[in-house]
Amino acid sequence: METPIPLSSSICLRETQEIDGLTIKAGEMMFIAIHQLHHNEDQWGEDHHIFRPERFEKSQAHHHPMSFIPFLGGKRVFVGNTFAENSIKVVLPLILKAYKELEFVDPTHYKKKPLNNITMPFRPVIKIRLN
Fold first, then answer.
1. Based on the domain organization, do 99 and 68 belong to the same domain?
2. Do residue 105 and residue 57 come from a single domain?
3. Where are the beta strands (DSSP E) in the chain?
């Protein structure tokens, strides 16, 4: 909901661009207001300030792909994005290892190969018993 860095790093355009009636000349510096982008009512609706993860499900996604850029995008993508994705693959098993007993909600999960995509919609697949 609240981006840790509300503005992008400075960007210098190589060509003059017109964006929504505003002309930005080549060589001028600009910033992207990430916080405002993530709270754009035109893209996210009147309840943009409410956390609703289902907004990102493919069946519900009616927003522009660049209207949510927590790690920026394109050539300027934040290096920490890859670091964060790889870290969760290491840290999550260590956290789960701390629990005494884990049990899958659906027993067929014991034979399934894990998906290599942590960004899929969350569905509970384990029960955790604290002993």
1. no
2. no
3. 11-12, 17-19, 22-24, 29-30, 101-104, 126-129
Whole-prediction pTM: 0.51
Please check whether residues 73 and 85 belong to one and the same domain: no
With vertex at residue 74, the alpha carbon angle to CA 28 and CA 35, rounded to the nearest 5 degrees, is 70
Q: Based on the structure, what is the number of domains in the chain?
A: 2
- 73 & 88 share domain: no
Predicted confidence pLDDT, tens digits, the chain (131 residues): 677 677 777 778 889 988 888 888 888 888 888 888 888 888 888 988 888 888 877 777 778 877 887 777 766 677 777 787 788 888 888 887 777 677 777 777 767 766 554 444 445 555 555 54
